[in-house]
């Protein structure tokens, strides 16, 4: 087990017993009233929201074109662009609180070392919590139970949480959708809200009704969309037998990460990445709306690399010291427009709405893409960041499409798709960058999962989905360039325990 939580000195044995006894009312399995609002109040300091935010604490937003200038020509041209969201480094040690709802699979297949590793990981999480945070624990097998309502992580709260963790026992079937529903219900039915909320769902198997699990998962999440409560869902799939399609869809629907833990002893790296993100997020609930503007140069917005493919989309949380890039493509038909010595055009505007987690306030920034139009010369410069992020999202889309082909047992087509993608990246103008090298490696690695269908089902599906989602959202326990300093420190701490 990981580091234990010591009992406060002023807590007598009899009082401690009463506290634990009072928790029994929350352990009534499927007969529990899921709509009950039993979350503990936030501390007074957390309820005081500052309306002042310095420029150093806000995120920077800017739009970028792939070249330092553009020249119309007789040929059709396509160029990538980005909306860049950049957060400052950690400015202060005191952070905002977070509500974390842990939904844990305790089916029979989780017995033995699996459940013990989960317990150790959760206990470690408690050591990183402060009195600004709250934690809830839900277990699910053949039914779901709330072992701990949202509880403030002061000394007493950590004792309650550790006692709840110790009561995790593996038996029964796997009702993933029911556990998910319970977790979301806790997030929706709160008397108080921290500025950041996350559900962490961990499972090693498939839902008891696997044939309808995907559809029921979608319906479960959509059922709560009208609540306007902001939260992310991060899912962990243990081993090769979990339902990667369902777990990845759960995370993708709420802008969370999907972590494939192929070997159970590797849980620490995945959990460090997830927990580090939660504890260092600067901006959340990010919505972007792109608009085309009039221009003397004919152009069209031909593609947006977003979850919807639409001009209105959401983005994952931005962490301290982190950046997120939304990528879109501008196309220019052949043109003989007389530009003279040069002009500037602003073809695209972006409205970015988000919540600053420190204050809880919604903010909007409006930015425009400025493109310099001038005659062709030898002074052309390519924006490496724009191009590498273009190939990042393109590789993610290739991996996603290859997974869809493989699900249809079209393995040769899937393999050909990722190998063609790797070939394109090897010959691109930014092929020597660290990120593109990682993308090439992952595309080639994915091709090995498409050798036969049994290999694909034995972890191949999960690994391909994991790579696709990680590169799309710039996450991943295996990709150091996607991690900030908080995640790296968290990983270092966990390595000393496991």
Output the helix-strand order. Answer: HHEEEHEEHHEHEHEHEEEEEEEHHHHH
Main beta-sheet annotation: 6 strands, mixed
**Strand portion, in percent?**
15-25%
If helices are DSSP runs of H or I spanning 4 or more residues, what is the number of helices?
Answer: 13
Query: What's the CATH first level of the largest domain?
Result: Alpha Beta
CATH H-level homologous superfamily name of the largest domain: von Willebrand factor, type A domain
N/C terminus separation: 9 Å
Structural category: alpha/beta
CATH architecture of the largest domain: 3-Layer(aba) Sandwich
Question: Do you know the CATH topology of the largest domain?
Answer: Rossmann fold
- Based on CA inertia axes, which overall geometry fits? globular
Helix content: 25-40%
- Uncertain regions: pLDDT < 50 for 5+ in a row? 1-31
Total number of strands: 15
Total number of domains: 3
Strand order of the largest sheet: 5-4-3-6-7-8
Q: Rg from C-alpha positions? A: 24 Å
Mean pLDDT: 89
Overview of the structural elements:
The chain folds into 3 domains: 132 residues, Sandwich (Immunoglobulin-like); 196 residues, 3-Layer(aba) Sandwich (Rossmann fold), CATH 3.40.50.410; 88 residues, no CATH class. The protein contains 13 helices and 15 strands. Helix 3 links the parallel strand 3 and strand 4. Helix 3 runs antiparallel to helix 4, helix 3 packs parallel to helix 8 and helix 9 runs parallel beside helix 11. The relative contact order is 0.15. The N terminus is likely disordered.
């Amino acid at each position: 087990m990981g580091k234990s939580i010591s009992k406060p000195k002023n807590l007598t044995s009899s009082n401690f017993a009463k506290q634990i006894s009072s928790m029994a009312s929350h352990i009534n399995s499927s007969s529990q009233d899921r709509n009950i609002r039993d979350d503990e109040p936030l501390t007074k300091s957390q309820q005081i929201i500052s309306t002042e935010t310095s420029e150093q604490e806000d995120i920077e937003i800017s739009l970028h074109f792939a070249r330092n200038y553009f020249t119309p020509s007789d040929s059709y041209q396509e160029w990538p662009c980005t909306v860049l969201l950049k957060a400052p480094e950690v400015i202060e040690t005191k952070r905002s609180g977070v509500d974390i709802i842990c939904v844990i699979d305790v089916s029979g297949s989780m017995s033995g070392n699996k459940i013990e590793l989960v317990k150790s990981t959760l206990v470690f999480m408690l050591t990183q919590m402060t009195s600004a945070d709250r934690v809830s624990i839900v277990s699910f097998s053949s039914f779901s139970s709330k072992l701990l309502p949202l509880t403030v992580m002061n000394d007493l709260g950590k004792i309650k949480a550790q006692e709840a963790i110790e009561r995790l026992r593996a038996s029964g079937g796997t009702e993933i959708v029911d556990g998910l529903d319970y977790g979301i219900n806790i997030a929706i039915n709160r008397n108080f809200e921290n500025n950041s909320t996350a559900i962490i769902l961990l499972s090693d198997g498939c839902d008891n009704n696997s044939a309808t699990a995907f559809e029921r998962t979608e319906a479960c999440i959509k059922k709560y969309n009208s609540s306007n409560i902001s939260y992310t869902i991060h899912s962990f799939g243990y081993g090769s037998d979990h339902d990667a399609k369902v777990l990845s869809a759960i995370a993708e629907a709420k802008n969370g990460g999907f972590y494939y833990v192929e070997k159970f002893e590797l849980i620490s790296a995945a959990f460090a990445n997830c927990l580090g993100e939660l504890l260092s997020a600067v901006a959340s609930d990010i919505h972007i709306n792109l608009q085309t503007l009039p221009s003397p140069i004919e152009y069209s917005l031909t593609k947006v690399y977003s979850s919807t493919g639409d001009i209105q989309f959401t983005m994952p949380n931005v962490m301290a010291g982190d950046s997120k890039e939304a990528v879109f493509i501008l196309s220019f038909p052949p043109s003989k427009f007389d530009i003279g010595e040069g002009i500037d055009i602003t073809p695209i505007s972006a409205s970015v709405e988000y919540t600053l987690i420190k204050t809880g306030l919604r903010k909007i920034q409006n930015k425009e893409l400025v493109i310099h139009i001038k005659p062709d010369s030898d002074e052309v410069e390519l924006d490496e960041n724009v191009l590498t992020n273009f190939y990042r999202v393109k590789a993610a889309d290739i991996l996603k499409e290859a997974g869809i082909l493989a699900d249809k047992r079209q393995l040769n087509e899937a393999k050909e798709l990722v190998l063609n993608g790797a070939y394109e990246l090897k010959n691109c103008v930014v092929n020597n960058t660290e990120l593109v090298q990682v993308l090439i490696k992952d595309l080639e690695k994915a091709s090995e999962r498409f050798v036969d269908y049994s290999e694909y089902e034995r972890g191949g599906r999960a690994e391909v989905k994991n790579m696709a989602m990680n590169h799309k959202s710039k996450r991943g326990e295996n990709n150091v360039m996607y991690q900030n300093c908080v995640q790296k420190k968290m990983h270092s701490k966990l390595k000393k325990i496991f």
